[in-house]
Specification:
Blueprint (H helix, E strand, L loop, with lengths): L9 E9 L9 E5 L2 E3 L8 H11 L6 E4 L2 E4 L1 E4 L5 E8 L6 H25 L10 H10 L1 E5 L4 E3 L7 E7 L2 E4 L5 E5 L4 E2 L1 H6 L6 E4 L3 E7 H10 L1 H21 L8 E3 L5 H10 L4 E6 L4 E7 L2 E7 L2 E2 H9 L5 E6 L14 H18 L1
Antiparallel strand pairs: 1-2, 1-7, 2-3, 4-5, 6-7, 8-15, 9-14, 10-13, 10-15, 11-12, 11-14, 16-21, 17-18, 17-21, 18-19, 19-20
Length: about 350
């Protein structure tokens, strides 16, 4: 008769991660009653689950005595391109009353944290479409940050690392000359553009008064967008509105406009044309080929890049970070009645997500 394999209950903690697409340092991984449990609101990595099954099926102790005291077993999950190390923390059962009380206190603190975030976020337009369970999942991933008056929150040129949701206070968008370009208050978000485009932060953000913000890491931001597609639509609408305001402030887009992609990304260029409902052509000179993108009243109707057309060409172009672009008003007569090959907002968001997935799989 085949012997039934036994698995031990245990709790592990992530001690280090480099480019792990899902988990963060400090998060706990549990095995309890033949079930593997990952942090709330996080996706389940099957490579990690297989590793936990392998570990908890072994008979060796997770703790060993040494001349420096008790040493806990360490493990590594290296099944994908990232690296994630974790170590044994404790058994499921509480070994002492003191430990049980500490865990209960931590659970009360965590619930208080979630309730506080939930109460603040529920009234924000960005999260109106999320049900209560989804909003609690999101609150689990947020970090609360306080900024005194005149503090630099984001610095131009730095890599985008977080999305910010303003819970209270006011921040200012500061130009290169130190002048304030705009102000944002409670309920507004910032930092999302660099996360979506992969470009550095384009403008510095300073707190104009004592400010409280909820911060979401780039890793968790991408996870949330995949899990809750309705937030993608809201973010894209917001980006289009901002792009339209930028176009108006800059005198709108005119024929002959040109520049370099390392100064303004293709996502931003396309959004400007879409928000202004322009009919024209973007010509791109890239290191490997030329490309042409045709718009009719702000909608994408035809793209040619190497041997790719339309949607496939768009996705390939969104991955390009360097090159020269120029805008010309008008399109050929034969394209005037060509319908869009997809919804602009949907195409851009799908393309950005596709590029991100390709980068992580390589």
């Amino acid at each position: 008769m085949r012997q039934k394999k036994r698995f031990r209950d245990a709790i592990f903690v992530v001690t280090e991660e480099r480019s792990c697409p899902i988990y963060n340092k400090g998060e706990e991984l549990k095995v309890e009653d033949l079930c593997a449990i990952v942090p709330e609101a996080k996706a389940t990595c099957m490579i990690l689950i297989e590793k936990l099954i392998e570990i908890t099926a072994q008979k060796e102790s997770f703790e060993r005595f040494s001349q420096h005291g008790i040493r806990r077993a360490k493990f590594s999950c290296g099944g994908c391109k990232g690296v994630m190390n974790f170590e044994y923390k404790k058994k499921k059962d509480f070994s002492t009353l003191q430990m049980k009380l500490l865990c209960e206190a931590e659970e009360r603190r965590r619930k208080k944290h979630l309730d506080r975030f939930y109460g603040k976020l529920r009234n924000f337009q960005l999260f109106e479409s999320l049900d209560d369970g989804a909003l609690y999942d999101l609150a689990e991933l947020l970090e609360l940050k306080h900024y005194p008056k005149n503090k630099v929150v984001l610095k131009k040129g730095e890599p985008g690392a977080h999305l910010f949701v303003l819970l209270s206070g006011v921040v200012g968008v500061i130009g290169d000359d130190g002048m304030q370009l705009a102000a944002m208050g409670k309920g507004e978000i910032f930092g999302e553009m660099s996360l979506l485009s992969g470009e550095p932060v384009s403008c510095s953000i300073h707190s104009l008064e004592t400010t409280e913000a909820a911060r979401l890491s780039v890793k968790n931001f991408k996870h949330v967008l995949k899990k809750y597609p309705v937030l993608q639509l809201f973010l894209l609408k917001m980006l289009v509105d901002r792009a339209q305001a930028m176009a108006l402030r800059s005198g709108n887009i005119t024929s002959g406009m040109s520049g370099e992609l390392d100064e303004i990304g293709l996502v931003e260029i396309f959004q400007l044309i879409n928000s202004s409902q322009k009919t024209g052509r973007i010509d791109l000179i890239l290191s490997d080929a030329k490309a042409t993108v045709q718009f009719n009243e702000g909608e994408l109707i035809h793209i040619r890049y190497r041997n790719l057309l339309d949607k496939e060409a768009l996705f390939a172009l969104l991955a390009r970070k360097r090159g020269h672009f120029s805008y010309t008003k008008g399109i050929p007569v034969e394209l005037e009645n060509t319908p869009p090959f997809g919804s602009f907002m949907g195409l851009i968001m799908e393309g950005v997500q596709y590029v991100d997935e390709q980068e992580h799989s390589n």
